[in-house]
Amino acid sequence: MSGESEQKRKRTAAEIEADLAATREELTHTVDQLSQRVDPRRQAQEAKEKAQAGVTSFVEGLKSGDPKAIGIAGAAAAAALAIVGLSLSRRKK
Question: Is the pTM value of this prediction over 0.70?
Answer without folding.
Answer: no
